[in-house]
């Protein structure tokens, strides 16, 4: 099991990775001459031929690994020709086969400890209104376990060791509250084991005895309480429920009475804590990692652990024997390991995720000291050397703040072969972009564009102080950060300074609209992907329990302060738009409703301006289907290329 810092209410953009760190290194100095690429760590490479979007789709990563109960193989999530489904890798014959064939993407799954079925979590049309299903591995029959009626959400948590009882979280009153439930898979009886009192509760994992269930209570994005529910007595207690402290789901170390979790208690960053269920003592766990920890997995009944933590500008991974004891030596170079996980009981059975250079990730099975390639995520015709590298640095903003930025640079770029630039603005706002492999970013690079991904103030990954800098200042400092990075980028000698574009999704879409209404001459064209543009109606569209979070982020209630709402909401400033614009929206989006984009496009047309508007009927807040992903990003690159050719 893995624990990680959780952002329950953040509305996610195109790249996901919520975290926190206090690392504040000095910015890298880049001289503006023909050696700039070398100073960025990008060596000369021959230009790559252009490949269609389909080939980059074939470089998609796999995830969600769960070992079979008899240890004969491993299940995982992988994209088929259309969406993400469950696949199986057999250790004996080393073959992969597809297990489920749902037309809608599978978001997660659990494996019956007895090996009879899978618990599938999926939605319809990308709506994020998840329901749970039992998939019989022998008969392939599917039984629906929950029915959210297109209003409520169900999240699978854990199964008892006998495979009889499923624990899950279920929202009610149109997502406003969330209870913890149990489902008896023999009698089909559903019970509420912990009822919310006007709050949102989420469960995590069971201990080895199946009598304790971890859970969290969401207060806001900066405060999450961690508790334990005694399933024998029905009583619960909070391990940590301090004001302003955010704690993650806990993980039991099954050979002890300990539960490990991440928390911001007493720090600007996430640290590893341990709670002893016998003594009820909470204390910091011993670790050699001083930076913010993003995720911890404890496997093999506590015999092996994996830690993902913040480096200077990108995440790093360490694998240990025991719980953060001696670092393990694995048959893959440490700098190439991107993540790892192991079986719950067998510490000698694991999955190692590796990456060499800019090539897509590779997945290995480590089976009792024997290493086999499970899956090379480059299933395309693209040669590994045709993928583009990245480099990261800090750029001084308008007020001297150091803004982390990642530069993804196409092969063949030079001062004599300058390239146009696409700024990639992440969502969140409490989110970040890491310089890791992305099929979509690599597609944009292959189409001839440099991609710049800044982590502006408000981003996670650089400490709580940095994360909170945008609170009460939406449309302010973080927009100026993007402008500062754009002006720095414009001066680089390998950049086509006349062709700098911007795209962003969710909060990134709001940032795009703020940019082009406040600073209409910085970018040549822009793309908004499901960005909120009118905050009174946006806040009102969320469940009442979550609305206070947005009010805290904005610094005011936009439903009550009309003047401030009109100042911050880009909708009221569309008359300032002077560059070409595309808008993309999922019809089933419950985070940023389609009404936001409808309003924006309507007001732009009323102002006598042109806008291209694309609605994807079977999508929500993001793209889960191949055809829609292809449509969206080919439309975007064609749009930017057309604008590049205009003088």
Helix content: 10-25%
Strand content: 25-35%
Low-confidence stretches: 1-34
Q: If you consult CATH, what is the topology of the largest domain?
A: Rossmann fold
Number of domains as seen in the coordinates: 3
The largest sheet, given as strand count, sense and whether it forms a barrel, is: 8 strands, mixed
- The CATH architecture of the largest domain is 3-Layer(aba) Sandwich
- Total E-strand runs: 36
- Could you tell me the mean pLDDT? 91
Specify the overall morphology.
globular
Structural class call reads: alpha+beta
- CATH class designation of the largest domain: Alpha Beta
**Radius of gyration, CA atoms, in whole angstroms:** 24 Å
How would you write the strand order of the largest sheet? 29-30-32-31-33-34-35-36
- Count of DSSP H/I helices: 11
Give the CATH superfamily of the largest domain: Alpha/Beta hydrolase fold, catalytic domain
Terminal CA distance: 54 Å
